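I need you to check the entry underneath: sequence plus fold tokens. Let me know what the token row says about the fold.

>
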Amino acid sequence: MRGAHVAVSDYAPAGWPPGTRTIVRRVRVAAGDVRSDTRSRRRRTIDPGQLALVLDGDADCCYAYSFIVTNLTGDARRIEAWFRKRADIEERIRDAKWGMALRHLPSGNATVNTVWMWAALLALNLSAWIQALGRVDSDGRAHGKRLRRQLITIPARILTHARQIIVRLNPVAHAGPFPTAWRHLRALPAAAP
């Protein structure tokens, strides 16, 4: 992670196996990057004393801390990166459940549920690819709900004129990410026959 510092501590909770250590990640956060929403995940990793200083305008930055308690051996930076990638996978699984209807399997038949699961995972990946190729993805956080809300279910009229597809958007949709995604997706080269 850019701008992060990683350190190792010998701390281990009582009763944990020998060789357990704590890996600490510290990331500098500029005052302007601290969100006002109290539910922000980044805000929860900032010490309340530092957060108060930044919110009051007394400091121009603060530090967010994350801790990993593990018995994995090796380079602390690699272990920390591995845990971060693992969190990305868990976020994709959550998005498949909440954004692609994987949390409710439709049948008592295992075969039907397997097809449903693969369809949901395919839809999740297509959603991420569309947002990434349309250049509207923000740091790999393309969620299925966002795709439906901001790129698919927007009011528009589709016309054809002189073998061209013309999309006439509702004036409200012009402010969203659709025009950018449409322009980049249309610029992609055609698939080879």
In short: The helical segments are 41-44, 48-55, 76-99, 110-133, 144-152, 178-186.
